[in-house]
């Protein structure tokens, strides 16, 4: 249990770092480049995912025994699902509830990050070889 909590804490630090880049890129591309907030969300998410994968593989889950060419496709599938869920959630809160896209994104990220991303990364993408 102690090991799982340590992995969880590390993965949340990684998610925070990747998420900060993701969020800042989303806001920048929306506010300064004029992209629609969903397109900005996609650009930011891909950028954050690259950072997140690198930190998780090398530090959070420290799971380098599996080759990258085996791990990376699983991670990409997870990221596509994550982007889909974040887009749907952000769009729903923004368009139907009248919440600013920046707040909608933060609320959605909380649920997607803990309920989807962490579980898939821990038990599928970076599953320890036992």
Helix-residue proportion: over 70%
Low-confidence stretches: none
Mean residue pLDDT: 95
Structural class by secondary-structure content? mainly alpha
Q: State the total count of DSSP E strands.
A: 0
SSE order, as H and E?
A: HHHH
Strand content: under 5%
Terminus-to-terminus distance: 16 Å
What does this structure look like?
α1 runs antiparallel to α2 (37-60) and α2 (37-60) runs antiparallel to α3 (68-97). This protein has one domain (2-125). The longest helix is centred in the first third of the chain and has 30 residues, at 2-31. The model has no long low-confidence stretch (mean pLDDT 95). The radius of gyration is 15 Å and the shape is elongated. The chain is 84% helix and 0% strand. It has helices at 2-31, 37-60, 68-97, 101-125. It has four helices and no strands. The chain has 130 residues and is mainly alpha-helical.
Question: Nutshell version of this structure?
Answer:
This protein is an all-alpha fold and 130 residues long.
SSE order and pairing:
Elements: H1 2-31, H2 37-60, H3 68-97, H4 101-125
Helix pairs in contact: 1-2, 1-4, 2-3, 3-4
List keywords for this structure.
84% helix; 130 residues; mainly alpha
């Amino acid at each position: 249990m102690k090991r799982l909590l340590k992995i969880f804490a590390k993965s949340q630090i990684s998610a925070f770092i990747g998420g900060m880049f993701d969020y800042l890129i989303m806001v920048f591309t929306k506010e300064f480049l004029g992209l629609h907030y969903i397109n900005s969300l996609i650009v930011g998410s891909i950028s954050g995912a690259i950072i997140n994968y690198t930190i998780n593989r090398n530090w959070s889950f420290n799971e380098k025994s599996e080759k990258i060419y085996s791990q990376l496709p699983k991670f990409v599938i997870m990221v596509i699902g994550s982007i889909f869920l974040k887009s749907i959630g952000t769009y729903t809160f923004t368009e139907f509830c009248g919440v600013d896209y920046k707040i909608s994104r933060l609320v959605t990220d909380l649920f997607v990050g803990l309920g989807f991303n962490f579980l898939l990364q821990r038990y599928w993408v970076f599953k320890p070889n036992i």
